Amino acid sequence: MEPTPMAENPSPHVKSMAAFLIRFYSDQLRSIALSPDPNLHYPLYIEFAELVDYDPPLARLVFSQPSQYLNDFDDAAVWAHRVVLENLKEIKDRVEKNFIHIRINISGSPLECPETFPTIGHVRVKHRGILLTLKGTVIRSGAVKMYEGSRWYKCRRCNYSFRVYPELETRNSIVLPSICPSQEIKIQESTQLLGVGAIPRSIPVILKDDLVDIVKAGDDIIVTGILTAKWSPDLKDVRCDLEPILVANHVRRTNELKSAIEVPDDVVMKFRKFWNCFKDMPLKGRNAIIRGICPQVFGLFTVKLAVALTLIGGVQHVDALGTKIRGESHLLLVGDPGTGKSQFLKFAAKLSNRSVITTGLGSTSAGLTVTAVKDGGEWMLEAGALVLADGGLCCIDEFDSMREHDRATIHEAMEQQTISVAKAGLVTTLSTKTIVFGATNPKGQYDPEQPLSVNTTLSGPLLSRFDIVLVLLDTKNPEWDAVVSSHILSEGMSDKVGRDEDLANIWPLEMLRRYIHFVKYYFKPVLTKEAEKIISSYYQLQRRSATHNAARTTVRMLESLIRLAQAHARLMFRNEVTRVDAITAILCIESSMTTSAIVDSVGNALHSNFMENPDHEYCRQETLILENLSAVEDFSALNRLEVL
After folding, report:
1. Separation between Cα atoms, residue 446 and residue 71, nearest integer Å
2. Looking at the domain covering 1-110, what would its CATH class be?
3. pTM confidence score
């Protein structure tokens, strides 16, 4: 695109804008002036709140007529840059820049209100033409296209030159394109903010110049721009419709805020006081917290502990070569119908600030990973569940029913936390830093004599990526059936005094969300030598005895043990992984095995209940585990072993 010719006598508005930029943004202008390439597009970020304080009438015009005044602002930026350039005469290699674009941030300004910052589903005709701000997740990103920004015409009679801008409404129907890049994305409002049954709305967004390629599918963004409309293609016997579209002026990624949950100081003090009350009975305090996970389901202590450890996760490790070992844990529930798997999935989604719930078949187009779709003759990438859940939790019911395409891709998504795409000429890598919580039914009657891969039809490499795999078998247990039936019937009784007293001792959902968020981002636990020794010796013991659980006893088990121990230390409000955390991680892994290598009987996770005195029970389990681990050869040499 040819540089814009500047008028010798700019309008008063342009002069006022240039004065504003020189006064408040001279540092940015100086940085642009010192840049070497005159043909690049340079952004100049300004705060709308500062413009309101400096010149309220001008701010009002920019808000109400952005199509005109944002172009004037760009001209003012070039003028201001030239003024700064004149003051840098001592620099020899200074070059004038042709393309500078004003990017307006509305945070903290009067525009940050429901009228000018609606949800995508509430965008209406009244918003057309004003400076509008929307928040959403990028669900589709198209290829970079050529876009003609403007064209100059000269009258043959009077030789007067004037500039013509293409109209987006007519799909930029100027015949000859130039070299200015443009890109179309689509954003969707967050499903977390919608009620049951509400359909999330989406809107296309046009990115131009320096905004191109700064976001990708799965990113959360806040975009400010001008709402307009685009005509549908002119086809014979087809009704022509208008499609709303936003022409972006400012884009801000909010990925770092995906899991942001506000935890006030007074709430943190409550957490500290809580643990002071249980300093002599720490595991009883732990159980009091995890009772709040899916409280409508009776018992299932092992499952609730596994859900808590999975949501909290471990610490991401980067070795000397830069290889990353994930900190996020994955959990799979394999069980008979009616064992509460789906209820745990839905409750876990409520505990996470960013979550996606789907089934193994996924959506009709994007599925679980990512797909290439053709829209208007162009190929675009559309994000699936794992990409949309980046930075949060992806709950997948009927995990064994996923498509073959997703089954092959999910291996990379779960371990390397990326998805490599090479489809229809689109080659890229998307982030899937996601916790995967899956649930599936066994194929037919579960056979304890067969490996887990046979009972679930899931491959060994895929099963090895799950830190915990719990099998919930609906076996006939008269004592357990009596307890469960009494619990369910008590919920339907007219006199619920006893039931209300029980609920009063359970942490509410919001408190539990804040606790999980706080310990996950505040504590970075480090393994002690004792914990290293216990985890390493258990891993060696499993490797020696692994015959029935060969798919699970890979080096990934060692990484899982470390993650679970770190998660338990966080759950216990500590920055150090101790023996208790290592033993608990071993018990979780033992519950994942169809045959135990160290405990006499892991029991059925479906029938696990909360102990009256968990600290006393733990002492018994610890003694048993340490006695069995002492049989490992060269136990003293484990002190020298460096764990990941």
Report:
1. 68
2. alpha beta
3. 0.76
